[in-house]
From TrEMBL:
It comes from Streptococcus mitis 29/42. Keywords: Hydrolase. This is Chlorohydrolase. GO terms for molecular function: hydrolase activity.
Length: 59
């Protein structure tokens, strides 16, 4: 498989998982994340990474 095709498939997987995440998360969820980002960007980065790690572990 070519590297361009692999990258495309990987990008599509991320988009699909992001859609699933946003569909299953309430507006309140994002408001809390935004407030956390304002207080401590370092903490927000860890939270965001954890969410994506959990998503990819499921699939």
């Amino acid at each position: 498989m070519s590297s361009k095709r692999t990258f495309f498939l990987y990008s599509m997987k991320i988009k699909e998982q992001t859609r699933k995440l946003t569909a299953g998360c309430s507006k309140h969820c994002f408001e809390v994340a935004d407030e956390t980002d304002e207080v401590s960007n370092h903490t927000y980065g860890k939270v965001k990474l954890t969410w994506f790690e959990e998503i990819f572990e499921e699939y």
